[in-house]
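worker-3 :: picked ABC-type polar amino acid transport system, ATPase component
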Amino acid sequence: MLEVKNLIKSYGNEKVLRGVDFSVKKGQTVAIMGPSGCGKSTTIRCLNLLTEPDSGKVIFRGTNLLELSSSELLKLRQEIGFVFQNFNLIERLTVQENVMLPLIKLDFTLEQRVKYARAALEKVRLADQASSYPKQLSGGQKQRVGIARALVIEPSLMLLDEPTASLDPILVKEVLEVIEDATYSQKRAVVLVTHEVSFALKVADIILLLDNGQVVEIGSSESIFTNP
Ligand code: ADP
Ligand code: ADP
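worker-3 :: tokens ->
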């Protein structure tokens, strides 16, 4: 599904990624972990080119995203869902309108868009808040809207960048539960950045430990956390 080869990225003189390699198969979940500032967020943003690497390859379903024209890239991105740390909801739109946004570019009728948005909101258990505005929601509910907006396109690749990092500890659990229930599909690959060790152990098939822009360990969650 996804193959990442020798990703290199610098900001000015600071080398942030120093050759990151990994791959994700259909049905797999990969958790990217490591100390603050080690390049986790930069790595996951490179997977749909929200951040453009200086060099390397991001091969998604056989196509290197770095070789695409911008219109081809927009089209492939319609198969990739992204969940942001800070939700990125549009405040003047309702919950349902926020979730319908990714479908606008696609060739769906309004009726279909409403139907798919409702289905996505049901998956994150927020169907009853469809006509609310983001400011009426808790942080945990906002992030569940962010997850519904990523799921509505039925992405074959789902990316989550520290989805619980800006939430009160008390709201983290509801969001992790929704991620666990709603994002997994045999047809999908999931990559997430998280500091939640027990959650990563539970959901990830593969854990990738980054340090200073390099993969220092990669393996099944058991092997990573039981090795000395
Ligand atoms: P992590 O997600 O592991 O905390 P990041 O990928 O966010 O790490 O950041 C890695 C390094 O790159 C940090 O030193 C950060 O300050 C720097 N960095 C990230 N984004 C930018 C940017 N847009 N401009 C300049 N420096 C950046
Ligand atoms: P079902 O209840 O079997 O999912 P739907 O009427 O919801 O049937 O969907 C009909 C078709 O549209 C199916 O092929 C399904 O894969 C596709 N589809 C459903 N939801 C979405 C969506 N959010 N984005 C794109 N395609 C979708």
